[in-house]
């Protein structure tokens, strides 16, 4: 699964630590999601969508093979 | 705005230190630990100095190593901070019980008091296990997964090793004493720590 987390975070000028604090997760978790090494759970994905005020499908995109 | 309890705590005075200063602190912590072990072995007044040195150096080593880690970057979460505090208190209790109390068990008459004295060092370790479980439950979903993977590997490795040694001892291939069981917890902790370090390293450092 791809995601636009890094791009959206960059638009707001937040560091990974800032985003982690907002989401109440560790900085490593934000980094792992951004680099595609970890796909978040649905509750966390919804928290991310709510934070960026975007639909979840505009932040998390399926791989081409799964699209 | 996050509630105060959920906000990560920026504990570290060390976070403001240069990398070189933090490495010096790591070396100092390990040196204090070695001096503490040396004093403990000499006995007399140095026993007390050794107990103090060990009580200070063990949490210092844990804290200082985190500060130079390339994977454990970022502020400590409240769950991690609480664990470090409980670790810092349970370890001195463990050292005191092992060094000052446990040795008397051999000279005591058989009975429940002797059993209680002999098993007493396991109590702070039980406290540590509860604190560790609490820390895992207070971690976020990815960290919980990493803890679980590391614990699964370490529990599997130690179980297989224990079973293999047990079969060898039962078949009289090896002569093992019961006190070898004292190594189960340290080996478990070491394998867990190594696997966790490796898993965290795979995640990368980020920005």
Structural summary, described in words:
The complex is a heterodimer of chains A (67) and B (207). Chain A has 67 residues and is mainly alpha-helical. Chain A has a single domain, classed as lambda repressor-like DNA-binding domains (434 Repressor (Amino-terminal Domain), Orthogonal Bundle), CATH 1.10.260.40. Chain A has helices at residues 5-12, 16-23, 27-34, 42-52, 56-59; strands spanning 2-3, 60-61. A two-stranded antiparallel sheet of chain A has the order 1-2. Chain A is globular. Chain A starts with a strand and ends in a 6-residue tail after the last strand. In chain B, 71% of the residues lie in helices and 0% in strands. Chain B has seven helices and no strands. The interface between A and B is medium-sized, with 22 and 21 residues.
Detail the topology: elements first, then pairings:
The complex is a heterodimer of chains A (67) and B (207).
Chain A: E1 2-3, H1 5-12, H2 16-23, H3 27-34, H4 42-52, H5 56-59, E2 60-61
Chain B: H1 19-42, H2 45-68, H3 78-101, H4 112-119, H5 122-137, H6 141-170, H7 184-203
Helix pairs in contact in B: 1-2, 2-3, 3-5, 6-7
